[in-house]
Write a structure and sequence with these properties.
It is built from 15 helices and 4 strands. With 380 residues, it is mainly alpha-helical. Helix 3 crosses helix 12.
């Protein structure tokens, strides 16, 4: 009943996207769990982890598209929200190591023992529970975004100035997390995870479950974003994007609309980071790097800004290309990424999804003259 109503509410593209996601997820999971390693249909565990990473990036791109594509807020700092969510999950995973760590202390993480910390810092309390860590992975980036947005949007900072401030925010956080006295592992970060919810984090079954959870998060994030942009609230967001001054003149509190969608987007990015860390096995301050946030914006631009599905496609396409190029020709990846961004800006500003729409609309127009000429010949 619920599934039927959902598919009725979705348009054709949304139904196709969700169906494809579900089928691809099930096929990869079954390929890993059902077929033996020597079977031609077997899907290796490293492929499962790779696709899980791509899905986490897709959720991050979706979060950026929500604020940039539909609200006109270009964020160059969403990597900060992604990293904070990752650290929240990393703290939980570190607490699960216990006496199996290098230094064997069941209370303090290894890096704290090495640095002679006398006791566990207060902000680590509660992270021995998965539920608390998951809530903090959503709440911590959302709170940071709310505080940041409260001051920025009410000060009416817009355009390139806001983008620069978001970039400064993530750079400042990167410098802070590099410090050993912050209590987050310094430049080494958090790593050497053992268990998650009592299951071996390196096992095939756990990897598959994390991959499926990432897929479900992308589908859930897409449905949430779609519900927002299709509502009256979403129409006002588009009005803010296209004519902010006029929307404000009509009596709408523009800053409130921006603040809400900005906070929701940060929570989505935090969830992406929380799913990313157990699959990658490490979280360190390099995830705060402004370059990561800029690259995520490129994913959205390549896929198609303001389309939601395009952001997901762009994240998968760019990161798959990155995996291939860095494996064979690592020195040219940055040049390829820059060239791709220039090509998107100049040749197809609507991204991959925009190119597909243009091609699909051109096909019937190309057929009409032929059918008209044939009809004319028959009449003669």
């Amino acid at each position: 009943m619920i599934t039927g109503k959902l598919f009725t509410w979705l348009d054709g593209r949304g139904r196709y996207f969700i169906t494809t996601m579900v089928l691809l997820t099930v096929a990869l999971a079954l390929g890993n769990q059902v077929f033996a390693p020597d079977h031609p249909l077997h899907v290796p565990t490293f492929v499962i982890s790779l696709f899980g990473k791509y899905l986490c990036y897709a959720l991050l791109a979706l979060a950026i598209d929500l604020v940039w594509g539909f609200c006109g807020v270009l964020s160059l700092g969403h990597g900060a929200f992604f990293a904070i969510g990752g650290y929240a999950m990393g703290m939980y995973l570190m607490r699960q190591i216990g006496s199996r760590g290098v230094y064997g202390d069941p209370i303090l993480p290894d890096f704290m023992v090495f640095l002679n910390w006398p006791e566990l810092p207060w902000y680590w309390y509660g992270f021995d529970h998965f539920g608390f860590a998951l809530v903090m992975a959503l709440l911590a980036p959302a709170t940071l975004a709310f505080i940041f947005g409260w001051f920025a949007f009410r000060s009416r900072v817009t355009g390139v100035y806001l983008s620069i401030i978001t970039q400064a925010m993530t750079f400042a956080l990167m410098l802070a997390f590099f410090r050993n006295d912050m209590g987050f592992g310094g430049n080494n970060g958090l790593t050497d995870f053992k268990d998650i919810l009592g299951f071996d984090i390196q096992s095939n079954g756990t990897r598959v479950v994390l991959f499926m959870a990432s897929s479900a998060a992308v589908i859930g994030g897409y449905l949430l974003a779609l519900a927002i942009v299709r509502s009256k609230f979403g129409k006002i967001l588009v009005a803010v994007r296209d004519a902010e001054a006029r929307t404000r003149f009509l009596g709408y509190r523009v800053e409130n609309y921006k603040l809400f969608v900005w906070t929701v987007s940060a929570a989505m990015a935090g969830l992406a980071g929380a799913l990313y860390v157990p699959q990658i096995g490490i979280i360190n301050p390099s995830e705060f790097s402004p370059a990561n946030s800029i690259e995520a914006v490129v994913w959205v631009a390549v896929g198609g800004r303001g389309t939601l599905i395009g952001a997901i496609i762009g994240a998968g396409f760019v990161n798959a290309a990155k995996t291939l190029l860095t494996g064979f020709l690592p020195e040219i990846w940055l040049f390829a990424l820059g060239g791709l961004f220039i090509a998107v800006t100049l040749a197809f500003p609507k991204g991959i999804l925009g190119l597909f729409d243009t091609w699909r609309q051109a096909r019937p127009q190309a057929r009409r003259p032929e059918s008209g000429a044939a009809t004319k010949g028959e009449n003669q």
